[in-house]
Design brief:
The complex is a heterodimer of chains A (about 110) and B (about 120). Chain A has about 110 residues and is mostly beta strands. Chain A has no helices and 11 strands. The chains are: A mainly beta (about 110), B mainly beta (about 120).
């Protein structure tokens, strides 16, 4: 069973702080890793993609990938109340039948307090 | 606004009705997906179309019937649904076909309620 695990939270941080969201995955053959943000009642919105070990920065967001530890994280710097949402970690594991099926974690709820 | 358009945004139907959900994208993506999402749960994959052919069916009940008329359109035909089928139905698309490492882009979803 291929799994993606996230702490469901809620994770509460004060405005301006760094929010750190973590995700582990079970399939060592996984190739692609994504972070989606989902506001309540809305659809998931892609915020970061990462494919190789290390850090990838985009504005206030930094994704970190460590394939040896099967770990991917998302850092949000200078957190704003508008960042309050559920963050879904998504992984494309390898499939021996061909093709990738994105596996979503359960999501971490983030609250940024003004 | 998203580049994947879903209609209708809301749908209420009885268990004996037949209805269809529609999804359209004009990004040139060749893979399209249907997901079901219940409250406080992650999206659950239902179907994947790659180059207009059904490539993945996640053992979805036959009361859900997908159709891909062309590379830009994806339909989900609904018939004899159960109350537990009430959920947010999400359409997504991605570049290339199944096997792609590209991320998926989601539509706003159709909120479906079964009476």
């Amino acid at each position: 069973q291929k799994e993606v695990e996230q702490n469901s939270g809620p994770l509460s941080v004060p405005e301006g702080a760094i929010a750190s969201l973590n995700c582990t995955y079970s399939d060592r053959g996984s190739q692609s890793f994504f972070w989606y943000r989902q506001y309540s009642g809305k659809s998931p919105e892609l915020i970061m993609s990462i494919y190789s070990n290390g850090d990838k920065e985009d504005g206030r967001f930094t994704a970190q990938l460590n394939k040896a530890s099967q770990y991917v994280s998302l850092l949000i710097r200078d957190s704003q109340p508008s960042d309050s949402a559920t963050y879904l970690c998504a992984v494309n594991p390898y499939s021996n039948t061909g093709g990738f099926k994105t596996i979503f974690g359960a999501g971490t709820r983030l609250f940024v307090k003004a | 606004d998203t580049e994947v358009t879903q209609t209708p945004k809301h749908l209420v139907m009885g268990m004996t009705n037949k209805k269809s959900l529609k999804c359209e994208q004009h990004m040139g993506h060749r893979a399209m997906y249907w997901y079901k999402q219940k409250a406080k749960k992650p999206p659950e994959l239902m179907f994947v179309y790659s180059y207009e052919k059904l490539s993945i069916n996640e053992s979805v009940p036959s009361r859900f019937s997908p159709e891909c008329p062309n590379s830009s359109l994806l339909n989900l035909h609904l018939h004899a649904l159960q109350p537990e089928d009430s959920a947010l139905y999400l359409c997504a698309s991605s570049q290339e076909g199944t096997g792609s490492n590209q991320p998926q882009h989601f539509g706003d979803g159709t909120r479906l309620s079964i009476l």
